[in-house]
Amino acid sequence: MSSSNNPTPIPIRIDFVSDVSCPWCVIGLKSLEQALGNLHDSVQAEIHFQPFELNANMPAEGQDIGEHIAEKYGSTPEQMAQSREAIRARGEQLGFTFAMDKRGRIYNTFDAHRLLHWAALEGRQKALKMALFDAYFTQGQDPSSHAVLLKVAGDVGLDTARAAEVLASDAYADEVRAQEKFYQQNGINSVPAVIINERHLISGGQPPEVFEQALRQIISGA
């Protein structure tokens, strides 16, 4: 029997482990979205954004991004320039603007992850995630700033009074740390990590066709 006659969409769970300060996570998410679009109505994807901190010990004032990358990866200025251009070009292909000249520092993202955890309970997690990516990578804003977080929350339709309460407290801190620990203990030490149906791992900011091929293989065996 042909599967093309209005097949019932196959439900899949996608856990997208990422950090809001990770450019390859933006690329991975935009590529994943494109792949899901190419699958049309054959899948019904439920995406859950899971926390990962690239720099859990980053102080409140952040750090100059060039200094940070040189310290962490040993990159030369030439290598950093090549990487920035590769990221900018990949983003452009996927319809996302990386304004590299506006992103001068890297920041602690723990409060952003707490807000994202709350946003999931409010049904606005994906909208907040994309708005945080835009705030940091396109607008050059500080994702550790409560003022920035509150504005972004309001922009995506979240209750800013409740968001302020979350940020002013330790709300969801334990939940975020527990999720971070869970994925680290299960071997996730770099992001993005895209986990399909809690079984299949796709690592890195892959091109859309890689995600599409993997998803097709997974649903064909579902």
Summarize the structure in words.
This protein has 222 residues and is an alpha+beta fold. It has nine helices and six strands, in the order βαββααβαααααββα. It has helices at 23-38, 65-73, 77-93, 110-121, 125-138, 146-155, 160-168, 173-185, 208-220; strands at residues 10-18, 43-51, 63-64, 105-106, 193-196, 200-203. The strands form two sheets. A four-stranded mixed β-sheet has the order 2-1-5-6. A two-stranded antiparallel sheet has the order 3-4. Helix 1 links the parallel strand 1 (10-18) and strand 2 (43-51). Helix 4 (110-121) packs antiparallel against helix 5 (125-138), helix 5 (125-138) crosses helix 6 and helix 6 (146-155) runs antiparallel to helix 7 (160-168). The longest helix is centred in the middle third of the chain and has 17 residues, at 77-93. It is globular and about 55 Å long.
Salient structural properties:
globular, 222 residues, two-stranded antiparallel sheet, 6 strands, four-stranded mixed sheet, alpha+beta
Write the layout of secondary structure elements.
Layout: E1 10-18, H1 23-38, E2 43-51, E3 63-64, H2 65-73, H3 77-93, E4 105-106, H4 110-121, H5 125-138, H6 146-155, H7 160-168, H8 173-185, E5 193-196, E6 200-203, H9 208-220
Parallel strand pairs: 1-2
Antiparallel strand pairs: 1-5, 3-4, 5-6
Helix pairs in contact: 1-9, 4-5, 5-6, 6-7
Q: How would you briefly describe this protein structure?
A:
With 222 residues, this protein is α+β, with helices and mostly antiparallel strands. The protein contains nine helices and six strands; from the N terminus they run E-H-E-E-H-H-E-H-H-H-H-H-E-E-H. Helix 1 links the parallel strand 1 and strand 2.
